[in-house]
């Protein structure tokens, strides 16, 4: 059972998401918070697997709460929920270690699938946000300053292939089918790749891959 924490300062929003997730027999909402401070306390107290946080809340907002959850309870996967399109928020959230970023107008099925994917360690980003991020990195003339870029040279050719596919949002199973590898083997490659790059999750690695122009067609 996937144990979920909901944090949003609007009770109606929490009720709507709770109702959606109730239809999934493998997901249980075990705690609800109305602000980031309460979310921090409940995430540890209820042994949460996934925390779904509103990006803007009174006091400690969702972004700061996500950063502190990553520090205090790193086993908790965080999904940010927002109605906003401010991409500065997206980048800060992803680089802080957030595993997913969804718009609140996502469909019920998208919400359920997002919880499942995030719980398994896979990144989830709304298509609109993903497209913007990719376009931003493709169009940027600035040289990225992330020191981790140098570590990509330390990856083996197979690890670089895996990283390129991770950056497209592919799951371990999808990578395995494409590269003709077992899912367990792919998991090992992903783990070693993240360790070498010093990335805490697949989303951070995906951003790094785009910075490094690893995908075919990036210049």
From TrEMBL:
InterPro entries according to UniProt: CheY-like_superfamily, NreC/VraR/RcsB-like_REC, Sig_transdc_resp-reg_C-effctor, Sig_transdc_resp-reg_receiver, Tscrpt_reg_LuxR_C, WalR-like
Gene3D superfamilies: 3.40.50.2300
Record-linked Pfam families: GerE (PF00196), Response_reg (PF00072)
One GO molecular-function entry: DNA binding
Keyword Phosphoprotein recorded: yes
Domain annotation Response regulatory: ranges: 3-119
Organism superkingdom: Bacteria
SMART domains xrefs: HTH_LUXR, REC
Stretches that traverse the bilayer: none
One of the GO BP terms on file: regulation of DNA-templated transcription
Residue ranges constituting the HTH luxR-type domain according to the UniProt record: 148-213
Keyword Transcription: yes
Keywords, sorted A to Z: DNA-binding, Phosphoprotein, Transcription, Transcription regulation
Residues bearing PTM 4-aspartylphosphate: 54
Protein name in UniProt: LuxR family transcriptional regulator
Provenance organism: Streptomyces vietnamensis
């Amino acid at each position: 059972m996937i144990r979920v924490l909901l944090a949003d300062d609007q009770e109606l929003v929490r009720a709507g998401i709770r109702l959606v997730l109730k239809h999934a027999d493998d997901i249980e909402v075990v705690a609800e918070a109305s602000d980031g401070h309460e979310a921090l306390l409940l995430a540890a107290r209820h042994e949460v697997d996934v925390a779904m946080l509103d990006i803007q809340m009174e006091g400690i907002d969702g972004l700061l709460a996500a950063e502190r959850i990553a520090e205090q309870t790193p086993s908790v996967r965080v999904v940010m929920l927002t109605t906003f399109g401010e991409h500065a928020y997206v980048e800060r959230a992803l680089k802080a270690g957030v595993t997913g970023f969804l718009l609140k107008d996502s469909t019920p099925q998208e919400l359920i699938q997002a919880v499942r994917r995030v719980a398994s360690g896979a990144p989830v980003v709304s298509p609109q946000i993903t497209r913007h991020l990719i376009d931003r990195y493709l169009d940027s003339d600035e040289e990225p300053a992330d020191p981790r870029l140098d570590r990509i040279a330390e990856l083996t050719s197979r690890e670089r292939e895996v990283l390129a596919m991770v950056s497209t949002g592919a799951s371990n199973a999808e990578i395995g089918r494409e590269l003709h590898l077992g899912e367990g083997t792919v998991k090992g490659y992903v783990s070693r790749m993240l360790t070498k790059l010093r990335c805490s999750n697949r989303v951070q690695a995906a951003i790094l891959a785009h910075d490094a122009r690893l995908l075919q067609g990036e210049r």
